[in-house]
Amino acid sequence: MKKKLLNVQLCDIMDVEVLMDAQKKISELLEGFSIITADCDGNTIGEMVNFIPFCALIRSSKEGAKRCQANGALLSRKAYEHGCTWIHDCHMGLRDCAAPIVLDGMYLGAVLGGQAFLEGEENKRSQFDVEKISRELSLPQDKLREAIDKIPVVPENYLRKCMECYGFLANYFAQVGLKNMTQKLLLQESNEKLIFQKEAQEARLKTIEAQINPHFLFNTLNSLARIAMFEGAKQTEEMVYCLADLLRYNLRQKEKLPMIGDEFDNLRHYLALQKVRYRDRLNYNIEISEDLKFFRIPAMILQPIVENAIIHGLEPIAKGGSVLINCRRTEKGIVIRVFDDGLGFKPDILKKLFVEDKAATLGIGLTNSQSRLKAYFGNEYGLNINSSQEEGTVVEIHIPAITRPLEGTLAEKEDSLC
Fold it and tell me: What gap in Å lies between CA 93 and CA 123, rounded to an integer?
């Protein structure tokens, strides 16, 4: 597939030595006529070839060079807009030509030349206001008059031949530039492929490590559970098994949309561990009917919401509180409800939660869950939160009723809705 060239500059794709060699050869064919290559802003690339004394003198002035650059940029842009070599009178009244350099549809600059009077325009010499030019550009009047006298006068047919040569040179630069850019893209793709291969190899090594480490971890946890059993520490045994089941589920979970029943089982293990920590300060109840367990939900949506309820809702209260989780079917899909009778959100925090303050510590689990749900199912699904200070919080998770795992497009997801 052809890559689109972005933010390419003329100086990035042209070797200056190649450019100068081509300009000198064309200039010899034009009997010493001037040639300059400039970028789209009028900045000179390389050297100016065979510039007439008048133009060289004007450009020797800081102000004069600025005007010549602006003139070159204007003329080059006109040539590009008209799609051909273009001619106009420069800011000093000389005939100036430009052939646009276009690569892959992008305007990169132009080949410029000319700087002459046409036959019959000799009277233009006397129209120069030498005193004004001298004053504005800080140039000696005697040198200006001498340079004006040397401005060449050429027939119109000769200037047109020059324009054809400028066009040929611009096309040549575009072809060379395309070749150079293609080589750069191929080299870039080769480097990216090498980097990808290296990253893939590292990922394989990490996968092997990830397979080894959990194996060691679960063996250790099972050993601890047996020791607890032999010592008669039933609560410790149950806690170790809950932790093992919790870790095993999270580490081996590969489906993007596991079954709700599996997520609820994982939630039971999590809450059992939290119950050991908080003891009587935490009560919980989980309700789900068998017919709802086989619907699908994005992995790890529920646990952050329940964790948020415990840490921010119940933990600050000395007596603790309760977390209730249930699931029901509606006309639009499935609604999972997480209720806690804790502190509740302050109105300003609740207002900012999904709008301004996404980085707030309180809202990380909720905002991430909201973003993931909407990314999977669209804006009509996601979280609804109702909260009152000192009375608690209800978080409702709205999802479509999907019965099989999904890896495809939204259209494929919709096909599996019940």
Answer: 12
Q: What span, in angstroms and rounded, lies between the C-alpha atoms of 345 and 385? A: 10
Q: Which two tokens stand for residue 61?
A: 């002035």
Count CA within 13 A, CB hemisphere, residue 114.
28
Cα 249–252–253 angle (5° rounding)?
A: 75
Q: Please work out, in degrees rounded to the nearest 5, the angle formed at the alpha carbon of residue 181 by the alpha carbons of 180 and 183.
A: 65
Count of CA atoms in the C-beta half-sphere (13 A) of 226: 6
Centre a 10 Å sphere on the Cβ of residue 242 and count the other Cβ atoms it contains.
20
Full-model pTM: 0.46
Q: Which residues of the chain have pLDDT under 70?
A: 1-8, 12, 27, 29-32, 203-220, 252-255, 354-364, 406-418
- The two tokens of residue 178 are 């395309």
Backbone angles phi, psi at 386, to 5 degrees: -120, 125
Q: Which parts of 138-155 fold into alpha helices (H)?
A: 141-149
Cα–Cα distance for residue pair 209/190, rounded to 1 Å: 29
Given this model, what pLDDT does residue 407 score? 52
DSSP structural state of residue 2: P
Contacts of 247 (CB under 8 A, 6+ apart): 214, 217, 218, 221
Helices (H), 231-281: 234-252, 260-278
pLDDT for the residue 322: 95
User: What is the CB neighbour count within 10 angstroms for residue 241?
Assistant: 18
pLDDT at 290: 94
Task: Kindly provide the b/e burial profile for residues 350-365, where b requires at least 16 CB atoms within 10 angstroms of the residue's own CB.
Answer: bebbbeeeeeeebbeb
The tens digit of pLDDT for each residue in 108-118 reads 888 888 888 88
Number of helical H runs and strand E runs in the chain: 13, 11
Give the separation between CA 85 and CA 111, rounded to whole angstroms.
9
